[in-house]
Specification:
Elements: H1 3-16, H2 23-33, H3 41-59, H4 61-75, H5 83-95, H6 97-105, H7 107-110, H8 117-137, H9 149-160, H10 169-179, H11 184-210, H12 219-243, H13 250-269
Helix pairs in contact: 1-2, 1-12, 3-11, 3-12, 4-5, 5-9, 6-9, 8-10, 8-13, 9-10, 10-11
Length: 275
């Protein structure tokens, strides 16, 4: 992989990670049309996602620090801790378990059959329509202080659906939160917070796993892609959080459906191969 290709992949990762359009689908498709002509792979995708999650750490640092301090104070039985932050921290931790367990259990499929582009196209279209339905019928009345354990676990399972490229991790969790009655900003905020343990864990696991692999991606392209994803991702978070307080998710739904149909057409005429 050339450095410019890595930078482009990082740019696309940063642009799409926080939007409900599936960053893994975009990297999967882009990998085939670049001169290197190959799928960058689940491991490369997971490592580059560390860059976008660093952007989450920077943007939501006050929330994350408050949650961490409150959880530690609760564990150490120190008085006066922020109960709401501690509760949210525990919900994020418990909600991260489904994607961890299923990710390890289905690792072989994640790296092979689940990366089929026909499946990716179907997920882009199908889950785009589900997002449209959730955005239409959800009450959008609840804020994060109303998030309970059951809802947190349910959204954790929704996040696990993103193990399939095309679903979109943020799209799945935002969709689930909208169905549960949460407002768009609250749904997006929890989606980003919920991603931190899972995405960092997955990226660090893949990084450690590939360290001694002679077939691993070269260090320089991976670093370039990760840094590019971080810088781009930060500005996307800022813009996205402002945008969804003013508009619906319909533009993202239309984009998902259009991309899915285009992908099916390119597969049909043989421009892209499914595997």
């Amino acid at each position: 992989m050339q450095i410019w290709e890595a930078a482009l992949l990082g740019l696309v990762q940063g642009l799409t990670e926080f939007l409900p359009v599936s960053s893994s689908a975009h990297l999967r498709i882009l990998g085939q049309v670049l001169p290197s002509g190959s799928d960058p792979g689940a491991a490369f995708t997971a490592i580059v996602q560390i860059g976008t999650e660093l952007a989450v750490l920077v943007h939501f640092r006050r929330d994350l620090i408050a949650m961490l301090r409150a959880v530690l104070a609760q564990l150490l039985r120190r008085p006066g801790y922020d109960g709401a932050s501690a509760r949210l921290g525990w919900i994020v931790a418990i909600g991260s378990l489904p994607i961890v367990v299923l990710g390890l259990a289905l690792q072989g499929a994640i790296e092979t059959v689940l990366r089929d582009l026909y499946l990716t196209a179907a997920m882009l279209i199908g889950f785009g329509l589900v997002l449209a339905l959730a955005d239409r019928i959800g009450s959008k009345a609840l804020t994060l202080d109303r998030l309970g354990w059951r809802s947190g676990i349910a959204l954790g399972f929704a996040q696990a659906l993103a193990l399939i490229p095309g679903v979109s991790r943020s799209g799945a969790t935002i969709t689930g939160a909208l169905f549960l009655g949460f407002g768009r900003p609250a749904a997006a905020r929890f989606s980003f917070l919920l991603a931190v343990p899972a995405v960092f864990g997955s990226g660090l696991y893949q990084l450690a796993k590939s360290w001694g692999d002679p077939q691993r991606a070269a260090l320089a392209p991976t670093v370039v892609a990760t840094l590019t994803a971080f810088l781009t991702g930060y500005f996307v978070i800022v813009g996205f959080m402002r945008l969804i307080s003013r508009i619906s998710f319909l533009p993202f739904v239309c984009y998902r459906v259009a991309l899915g149909l285009l992908l099916l057409a390119l597969l049909w005429v043989g421009v892209l191969s499914p595997g």
